[in-house]
Amino acid sequence: MTARNITRFWEWGRKIICVGRNYADHAKELKNAVPTEPILFLKPPSAYVTEGSPILVPLYTSNLHHEVELGVVIGKGGTAILQSEAMEHVAGYALCLDMTARDIQDECKSKGLPWTLAKAFNTSCPVSEFISKDRIPDPGNVKLWLKVNDQLRQSGCTSQMIFSIPYLISYISDFISLEEGDLILTGTPKGVSAVQEYDELQAGIEDVVTMSFKVDRQDN
Ligand SMILES: O=C([O-])CC(=O)C(=O)O
Ligand SMILES: [Mg+2]
C-alpha cells in the first residue's frame, strides 16, 4: 500500500471484526442454532499476537479453546460496500486463531451478557504472516487445519462457510465502516477444544502458510 506497510496490519491498531457460527458443524457441536444472519463481535488491536510470542491463558478461565479461522485483511475502506465489489476491498489474508474462554462465554450466554471477556483479552488473536491476495485465488475454497501437540483437532474447508466473504464484507460495512488495515475473522469449523499451559499449537492453510504458538502462563 502507500505510506504504511499493510503486511504488518497488526501494528496499525485497527479493528478486528469476528463472525461467529459461520460453519454449521461448529454451531452444532456447541448446541447453537445455525444463524440466518451473521453474528458479529469485536476484538481490540491489543488482542494481536504474532509468532515468537506466546498465547497467554487469562487467569479467570479454566477452559481456553482454540478456533482456527481465515482472516481477511481490508486494503480499501468503505461503507455499504456492494457484494459485487467486495473483493476489491481485500488486500490479503492471514491465518488467525479466535482464542475463546469457553467457560466465560457460556456464563455470558446464560446471563445474556456480552462476550467481551471471553473473546477480547490480550493475546486472544494470534495471526500468521500477511498473505497477499494473489496467493489465495479462491478464498471460498481453502482448507484450514489446527493441531495441538501434533494431534489434529480441526480440519475444515472455507467452502463450508454459511456466509461468503463478499457477503460478510457487504453485510458488516452496512453497520460498521471498514478501514484499511481492518481484519475480519470469518468463523471456525468444528473441532474446537481446550488448550493447556505449555501446549504447542500449529495451524495452516493448505500449502499456503503454517504457524505455531506456545500457550503460556500469565504472570500476575
Ligand atoms: O464462539 C463461538 O462459537 C463463535 C465463534 O467465534 C465462531 O463460530 O467462530
Ligand atoms: Mg470464532
Cofactors, ions, other ligands: oxaloacetate ion, magnesium ion
- In CATH, the architecture is Alpha-Beta Complex
Overall geometric form: globular
- CATH homologous superfamily grouping: Fumarylacetoacetase-like, C-terminal domain
Q: Fill in the CATH topology.
A: Fumarylacetoacetate hydrolase, domain 2
> Which class of secondary structure composition applies to the elements?
alpha+beta
Q: Spatial order of the strands in the main sheet? A: 2-1-13-6-7-10
Q: Give the percentage of residues in beta strands.
A: 25-35%
Parts with pLDDT < 50 across at least 5 consecutive residues: none
Instruction: Give the number of helices.
Output: 4
Distance between the termini: 40 Å
Radius of gyration: 16 Å
Major β-sheet, in short?
6 strands, mixed
| Helix content percent band | 10-25%
- Total beta strands: 16
What does this 3D model show about the protein?
- Keywords: Metal-binding.
- One of its GO terms (biological process) is carboxylic acid metabolic process.
- One of its GO terms (molecular function) is oxaloacetate decarboxylase activity.
- This is Oxaloacetate tautomerase FAHD1, mitochondrial.
- It catalyses: acetylpyruvate + H2O = acetate + pyruvate + H(+); 3-fumarylpyruvate + H2O = fumarate + pyruvate + H(+); oxaloacetate = enol-oxaloacetate; a 3-acylpyruvate + H2O = a carboxylate + pyruvate + H(+).
- The chain has one domain: Fumarylacetoacetate hydrolase, domain 2 (Alpha-Beta Complex).
- The longest helix is centred in the last third of the chain and has 11 residues.
- It is 14% helix and 32% strand.
- It is of the alpha+beta class and 220 residues long.
- The strands form 4 sheets. Strands 2-1-13-6-7-10 form a 6-stranded mixed sheet, covered by helices on one side. Strands 4-16-15-11-12 form a 5-stranded mixed sheet, with no helix packed on it. The chain has a 3-stranded antiparallel sheet with strand order 8-5-14.
- Magnesium ion binds next to β1.
